[in-house]
Amino acid sequence: MIKIKNLTKYYGTGDNRFKVLDDISLEIKDGEYVVVLGASGSGKSTLLNVVSGLEKSDSGSICYDEKSISNMSEKQLTSFRKDNTAFIFQQYYLLPNLNVEKNVKMGADLYGNKDYKKYIEAVGLSDKLKKFPNELSGGEQQRVSIARALAKNPKVLFLDEPTGALDEKTGRLVLDYIIKLQKEQKFTMIMVTHNSNIAETADTVVRMNSGKIIEVTKNQHKKSAYEIGW
Amino acid sequence: MIVSIKDSFKLFGIFIITCCAVTVCNMFLNYYLDIIDIESLINNEYAQIFYDAQIMTCKVVCAVSGGCLLATTVVMLFFYIKHYIDSHGKEIGILKALGYSDFRIARSFSVFGLSVFTGCIAGYLISFALMPSFYELQNEDKILPEFSISFHPALFIILVAVPAIVFACIAVIHSMRKLKQPAVNLLKGITKAKGKNIEIKNKKNFIADMKSSVIRNRKTLVFFICFSSFCFAAMIQMSASMKDLSSEYMGIMIFIIGVTLAFTTLYIAVTTVINSNSKNIAMMRVFGYQTSQCKTAVLDGYRPAAYIGFFIGTAYQFGLLKMMVEIVFADFEGVPEYNFDVKMFLITLAAFIVVYEGIMLIYSSRIKSISVKEVMSE
Questions:
Q1: From B378, which residue of chain A is nearest by alpha-carbon distance?
Q2: ipTM, two decimals
């Protein structure tokens, strides 16, 4: 369970100081799939960064099963990320000089996972093990980043616009992989997106605007990646 | 103009190396040209042997140090051009897409010849500042007839004007070769030539894989780190021997040149390694790799090259001094026997370990300061 309480974050200093997260409180259950929805500048990516321990908040608390990460040092946060989280970004951020297998190994090694090839197989890239990122399409690169994230067996998976740079067909394919793997492995998943259609695939939808949560809704009937509009 | 004059001043590695090369070469060549004028005035055998030894010393020093530093300057120039094209791929790609020819873009790389010119000028002036003491030391026992420092315009042309022009041309030709790739590749940041995806054997863990990949993708930096420790080992040990073989003044000069070259090249190499891997480091930290693991992956792979460079430098200085003593000064009385100085070797090795490992530790704090937000800055 992730408990977020009265989270506030500012950017800038002096006259340019502005609030990006305004008193955010939220609870996310283990194994829950949450979509954070909002327009550009609504604070959704900042929320993701702060909750995942990539950035620190100015006030408020974030607890993972009663363990607070708010006051952790940088070293402790790194260690926390190693044991608990994984990330999938819009721009993939694969290591350009390493092939598919070694990119996935990056995540797997942190968990001591020797059986990482099954994740490459799960995302349908077994035949591209030795390919380098610049030899892959955008969709394939994103699938590598999914395999890399899952190979470290995260308790919580954070996704920042994972289909944002992909066309509809590839976007649906990637989203389908992610949803299927989340169902199978039952990790908690928090996805940030501006695409309101994707929200229909989630258990919970958190809508944000101007740094505030304006609505939290539960989906009674979740849809698959191929049932939603795009 | 894509490459500005300001960019040429960022090439301080080339400035330092050319400055050192011209300082040494101009000092010895000027001395050489001055003493050949007095050959007819030598009237005894002892002075003739001394004269021949000095002539040979000038030739050996200029050929060895000049040649060595010239080769390093070429490698460094190529490295800077590649680095510039890699880091300015988007701007260059736009120019190519707009219809600028490779030559028109490459032409602007000629300003890199300016850093060679400024380095040569600085070296030329420094050498003249040092020349009075150098001349005095070379003939302190007054074995040779009196002679004074003369200005040789030919040396200015050979050591300042020619290198600047030649290096400007090399920069244009080399950048033209590097620019021969589709504009779209430059725009997308795919500046790697075909075959650059270097497959490395699977290692036991990711850190080892990463270590191999970092080295294989930046082989020039292996050369720089090797060269850096080579200079450190060779020049420091040589400077210690100079006290007995030549003079303390020469020892100090060699020491300063060696340490300057060593630190400059090491700084360039390590800074480049970290800057070019900053996104990879940030991503590793996002996933939970600690700073020490990032340092191992990015910097530790260069350690063997550093130590190999150190031992090559040690062997080089021993071989060079042995040759000078036993061949060049063979007929000259009063030259002490030269043997390998084990004590000095151990002191230099200890100093090298402390300095090298200390610098790596300092750089690990630089790694620590790379923000994990770096990956999100695009």
A1: A91
A2: 0.85
